[in-house]
Design brief:
about 350 residues, binds NADPH dihydro-nicotinamide-adenine-dinucleotide phosphate, binds 1,3-dihydroxyacetonephosphate
Length: about 350
C-alpha cells in the first residue's frame, strides 16, 4: 500500500527499537518525535543524530526530534508507537492516559506477556485506554538492520481491518514493508513466545549440543507456540507468518538476537548480569504457567522456565525432553501438531 499523507508520529521509548522505528516513520515522510526518559539519549538524538547507548556506531537521519516531555511528544500525534519493554508497558500506558489525542491509534511494538497477570499487551492497553484504537507491530526485524535501512517486512495487526490497513500504509516505506492483519492476538502471541524459544535455541547452541538439536528445539518449540496460540484463538496462518515462524527463523539462529545471546550465555554457564534486554526471560515463567493452567503440552517452554528459575540444568532439561514418551509427530490435536 502506498504511503499516506505526512502525519505526526510519537514514539515512546528511545531504545534500539524505538529509535529504529522512529527512523522508519521519518523515512515514510512523517514528522516524528521520540519520547525518551534519559536526558543523555535525548541530547544525543537531537544534537548529534546518534543513540550511542542503544545503536552505537549508527549515524541516524537528520530530522528526528526527541524530548523528555511526554505531553510534548504526544501533542497533536496522529499515531503513537509504544516501544518500551513489555513489563513496563502498563506503567507507561498509565502515564499517557489523559495525554492521548482523541482517536489517535496506539501501536504496541513490544514483544511479551505481562508477567504478573498473564495479560497480552493489547489487553492491558484496552483496560487502561478503553477509547484508544489498539494495534500491534511485530515480525522479524532487528533494530540495527532497520536503522541501516535494510529491507524488512513486518505485520501490523488491529481487529479493525481498515485501521490495520491504514497503519500499514502509514508506516511502510521503500525499505520497510508492513503487511496488515486483523489477528491481533496471533501477532502478539507469535512475538512474545518466539523470545522464549530463542532463549531455548541459544541455550542449546551455548551448551554445544549441536545444530541438529537446535533445529529440533526450534521445530518442536514452534509446535508449542502454535498450541498456546490456538488456546488464545490465534489464527494458525498468522503463526506461520512473519510474527511467528518468520521471527523464530530470525532470532533462533542469530547472535544478533538478544534472546538468543542470552540463551547462549545460559548454555555456556556465563554470568547473565549486564546482558541486554531479553524479553523471553520475563515471559518464560508466565508462558509456562499459562500452558500448565490450560493443560497445554509445552515441555520446551516449561524447560526454559525451569532452567531460568534454577530448578533444572540444561543437560537435565534436555535429557527429560529426550525421555518423553514416544508419539506420533502429528495428529488431530490443534492443527494436527502434538
Ligand atoms: N531491538 C530490536 O531489534 C527489536 C525489539 N523489539 C521489542 O521492542 C521492545 C523494546 O526493545 P528495545 O527498544 O530493543 O529495548 P532497549 O533495551 O534497546 O530500550 C528500551 C527503552 O525503553 C526505555 N524504558 C525502559 N523502561 C522504561 C520505563 N519504565 N519507562 C519508560 N521508558 C522505559 C529505556 O529507557 P532507559 O534508557 O531510560 O532505560 C529504553 O529507551 C521489546 O519488547 C523488544 O522485544 C521488537 C522488534 C525488534
Ligand atoms: O524481536 C526481535 C527481532 O524481530 C529482536 O530480537 P531480540 O529481542 O532477541 O534481540
Amino acid at each position: 500500500m502506498s504511503q499516506q499523507r505526512r502525519a505526526r508520529i510519537a514514539v515512546l521509548g528511545g531504545g534500539a527499537w524505538g529509535t529504529a522505528l522512529a527512523l522508519t516513520a521519518l523515512r515514510a515522510g512523517h514528522a516524528t518525535t521520540i519520547w525518551a526518559r534519559d536526558p543523555a539519549t535525548v541530547e544525543a538524538l537531537n544534537l548529534r543524530q546518534e543513540n550511542p547507548r542503544y545503536l552505537p556506531g549508527i549515524r541516524l537521519d537528520k530530522g528526528l526530534v526527541s524530548t523528555e516531555n511526554l505531553a510534548e511528544a504526544l501533542a497533536g500525534a496522529d499515531c503513537i508507537l509504544a516501544v518500551i519493554p513489555a513489563q513496563t508497558m502498563r506503567d507507561v500506558l498509565q502515564e499517557i492516559s489523559g495525554l492521548l489525542p482523541v482517536g489517535a491509534p496506539l501501536v504496541l511494538c513490544a514483544k511479551g506477556i505481562e508477567r504478573s497477570t498473564g495479560r497480552l499487551l493489547s489487553e492491558i492497553a484496552r483496560e487502561i485506554l478503553p477509547e484508544t484504537p489498539i494495534a500491534a507491530l511485530s515480525g522479524p526485524s532487528f533494530a540495527t538492520d532497520v536503522a541501516r535501512g535494510l529491507p524488512t517486512a513486518v505485520t501490523v495487526a488491529a481487529q479493525d481491518p481498515a485501521l490495520a490497513a491504514r497503519l500499514a500504509g502509514l508506516l511502510s516505506s521503500p525499505s520497510f514493508r508492513c503487511y496488515s492483519s486483523t489477528d491481533l492476538t496471533g501477532v502478539e502471541i507469535g512475538g512474545a513466545l518466539k523470545n522464549v524459544l530463542a532463549i531455548a535455541a541459544g541455550a542449546v547452541a551455548g551448551a554445544g549440543l549441536g545444530a541438529s538439536a537446535q533445529a529440533a528445539m526450534v521445530t518442536r518449540g514452534f509446535v508449542e507456540l502454535r498450541r498456546v496460540g490456538a488456546k488464545f484463538g490465534a489464527d494458525p496462518e498468522t503463526l506461520m507468518g512473519l510474527s511467528g515462524l518468520g521471527d523464530l527463523i530470525l532470532t533462533c539462529g542469530s547472535d544478533q538476537s538478544r534472546n538468543f545471546a542470552y540463551g547462549v550465555a545460559l548454555g555456556r554457564g556465563d554470568d547473565l548480569s549486564g546482558l541486554k534486554l531479553a524479553e523471553g526471560a520475563a515471559t518464560a515463567g508466565i508462558a509456562a504457567r499459562i500452558a500448565r493452567e490450560n493443560e497445554i503440552e509445552a515441555p520446551i517452554i516449561e524447560a526454559v522456565d525451569a532452567i531460568l528459575a534454577g530448578r533444572s540444568t540444561i543437560r537435565e532439561a534436555v535429557a527429560a525432553l529426550m525421555a518423553r514418551p514416544l508419539k506420533s509427530e502429528t495428529d488431530e490435536d490443534m492443527g494436527r501438531a502434538t
